[in-house]
Write a structure and sequence with these properties.
Helix content: 25-40%
Distance between the termini: 22 Å
Pfam families: Peptidase_S8
Strand order of the largest sheet: 2-3-1-4-5-6-7
CATH architecture of the largest domain: 3-Layer(aba) Sandwich
Number of strands: 13
CATH superfamily of the largest domain: Peptidase S8/S53 domain
Shape: globular
Organism: Flavobacterium litorale
Largest sheet: 7 strands, parallel
Structural class: alpha/beta
Order of helices and strands: HHHEEHHHHHHHEHEHEEEEEHHEEEEH
Family: Belongs to the peptidase S8 family.
Radius of gyration: 24 Å
Protein name: S8 family peptidase
Keywords: Hydrolase, Protease, Serine protease, Signal
Low-confidence stretches: 1-20
Amino acid sequence: MKFKSIYLSAALALFLVGCSAGKKITAEPISVTTPLTPKQAELTETELERWSHLDLMTDTIPGMSVDKAYKLLEGRKFKKVVVGVIDSGVDIEHPDLQPVIWTNDKEVAGNGKDDDKNGYVDDVHGWNFLGDINHENMEFVRILKKGDDGSETYKKAKAEYDRKYGEAMAGKQRMEAIANADKVMQEATGKENYTAEDVRNIESEDATVNQFKPMFVQILSNITRKELMEQVEGGMEYFGGQMEYHLNMEYDARKMLGDNPDDFNDREYGNGNVIGPDKDGAKHGTHVAGIIAQVRNNGIGGDGVASNVVEIMAVRAVPDGDEYDKDVALAIRYAVDNGAKVINGSFGKYYATHSDWVYDAIKYAAEKDVLIVCAAGNEGTDLNKPGGVERYPNDNRNGGPEISDNFLSVGALNYPLDANLIASFSNYGKKDVDVFSPGVEIYATTPDNSYEFLQGTSMASPNAAGVAALIRAYYPKLTAAQVKRIMMQSGLPIDIEVAAGGNPEDMRAFSDVSMTGRIVNAYNAIILADKMSRM
């Protein structure tokens, strides 16, 4: 959906003051009128922890001008907005999230009854569609397990499986080889945490030691042995998890849940434990919730984009592995039916067996005036290249016309104002990505009262969702479709070339990597929302 710039429209000069409560905002929107000068100095720790809130023109950091937006909103009335976080679970006990967790006041906690008759027993803070499941197959594995039906989808899934299995096996073997070589180097140097110099000074007639020596000298010239082994441990966990769960044809988590994922009417599954079976599995969702809603200015952790005005409804539907279309569709409907006005979806996949259920849920959300903000994906690929892949969920059914006007797709920004402005991992696309927002090294809540820097379009999406929630809180009469237009039209256009997918050989104008060529800007969004609300 393409829109002409509202800033250029003479219609905005004509508005009805009586249509919106509060004093008219007269501030001028931020505009980029001169060539931008990149920040030369490294970001300080304080700047890095909240760079997404900073201002491009003042701080020379491509944040969303959140701090500046709050100054516009001082003293203004707002209506609390419920934001549904469809994710891996949320640590609702985290002290920086406890004050902003949604509570279903129609439900009596722990009585084993469906007090509000919404079909979900004891859904006090949301719903857990995964029960005690943490891990899942990839969707293409589930397709293979159903048998060869001769379809192109099956053939594609088989090719994907063969490629991924080979990569996982090779990766696991590579990590094991490095771990074994490390033991050899420890023995040869007589040290547990040896250095490049220690390895260089080894004198040995052992062929194995001499084989590994040049490799370790090179590696340890760039990182420490401790850092190397942390990477190896992470690699072992990653590739091991792929082999044990994601690609394991014998693994069937759905049996544990007692649900038929191919029957949309079979809905009596899951529970009210929105954290999940363990807090570690809720890390992703807890971080996403924190970006939106961790308490501002309380002297601990980071600051949420919209913590003052939102309540987080936790909807657990995203496992380690690919989510089920049924869970996603029901999660969207649950959030809509229980009062969410914004839904964040920091997940996605490239195969879908029941995409119609999700499309119908997106349209249902549109009918109920709910905005869905979704991550564009982390494969560093052009979603709109000829013969490109289809990423789910989306709102345009294989590149066709949009099915609704309530779905916003978000790519991830980096903080350097140069060729690396879009994150190397971020997907992009002139049709399938609407806007970009900060998604690299974002500081937010993680389980057990902790905070971490994480990155991904999974972090960019809640940054944008937080801005959308601000708009809906202070201007509740604006529709989801209007909020989407505001988000797209009020962003800052950046006139530079960027390395698409992190590839310096593929330089593109920033205006060509998304539909709008803009980065989300809360300050401009509030100004435009104020004007729209008075029309």
